[in-house]
Amino acid sequence: MRITRSIALGASAVVGLSLALTGCAGSTGSAGGDASADPVKMCVLVSDATSSEALGFKDYYTEYVQENFPVEFVYSDELADADAEKSAMENFIANNCKAVISFASADRPAQIEMAEDAGVYYAVATGTLSDEDYETYKDYEYYVGAIGPSLDIEFQAGYDMAQFFVEEGDTSFGLFGAGIPYYLDMHIHRTAGILAALAEEPSTTYGGQKDPGAILGKIYQDGTIKIADFESDVYSLTGYLEAWNFSDSAWQANMAGMVAAQPDAILAAGTGFAVVGAAVAGTDIKIGDIDAYTEDNKAAMESGALAYLAGKFTSINGPIFAATLSAVQGEPLRADGDAAIALGQGYWVATSIEEFDQILAADSVESPVYDKTALEPWIASGATYDDFATFVSQYTYADLVG
């Protein structure tokens, strides 16, 4: 069961567009990596320009990909809402961008329509369209497609995280729902996965439900998590926090109360340590998070505060770049029925500082797992969609590193 709703964002300021160009490609190679070719101007929409994850993604594109393929990246400033995205798209089109890769999701349908009307290739990075939107746009000529965690993968990420703590013997939990009140689909599905994992215990229900689809539907209906609706003879939810209202005294009091209840762990749908890390310092409360491989999270895992992290790896956006450049160069990768790409990629998981360090060492801007050798076969080289889909599906640490 999959229920979708439009994503509403808490912020509303329209941020301007920066069209400062980064340096051109400059290494030797063949196929998509021919440095003698004129660089393709590829523009990137971002709703987050400052987090460690976002900066890592950008560095991979501008410091590695751009140096190894004939591409020139142009980044937007941080885009807070649909109006800002529209303005950025208008600027990109006016400045002769040949393709747009989007990390901004306030109004993806509008972005796709603008790109199609302008004859500009468009792709979604680290995300997917809803089933309904995919059916609407899959036949568009200039819609390359999307590669990233599907909502099923997001649900599984929350489920797996909760299972880890259950297997550790933990029974009391605080929850951080992150963007649930803004109907951020990924946070809703991750939290539903957490609750569904707990509900596998015979006495445990949420809203009287044990079925994962029914739990998911209730969260969409309520737009929040209601602690009173959680019933169990084994587990307890000691508190719930959502959104990022750091300056709000009631929000701060709610966080303090959740920590004061001394749960075994706080399970977060995203940005967990960044939000509650300082509050749990000096306690035995562990944090489970679905976030990113950052230096702050490394320090948290080293200290023992962060016990579980599911995060995107730095070069995860390599395949969508390859598919986009291939389309620009005249060989779009299309699914059966000449449909756009719709492929899932998930997270790498660390439960110890040793695993965390191994992940950082295995995939860096300087030496990414999706390097030139890995990506070149998919760029204007006659590759089939089925082979590309198989390549993308092999995204786990074991698949890519061994």
Explain the overall architecture.
By secondary structure, the chain is of the alpha/beta class. The longest helix is centred in the N-terminal third of the chain and has 17 residues. Strands 2-1-3-4-5-13 form a 6-stranded parallel β-sheet, with helices on both faces. It has a 6-stranded mixed β-sheet with strand order 9-6-10-11-12-14, with helices on both faces. Strands 7-8 form a two-stranded antiparallel sheet. The protein has 2 domains: 178 residues, Rossmann fold, CATH 3.40.50.2300; 161 residues, Response regulator (Rossmann fold, 3-Layer(aba) Sandwich), CATH 3.40.50.2300. The radius of gyration is 21 Å and the shape is globular. α2 packs parallel to α3 and α6 packs across α7.
Q: Going across the biggest sheet, name each strand in turn.
A: 2-1-3-4-5-13
> In CATH's first tier, which class of the largest domain applies?
Alpha Beta
Global Rg: 21 Å
Instruction: Assign the CATH architecture of the largest domain.
Output: 3-Layer(aba) Sandwich
* Overall shape: globular
Strand content: 15-25%
The first-to-last residue Cα distance is: 34 Å
Helical proportion, percent range: 25-40%
Oligomeric state of shown chains: single chain
Protein name: Sugar ABC transporter substrate-binding protein
Organism: Microbacterium hominis
Keywords: Signal
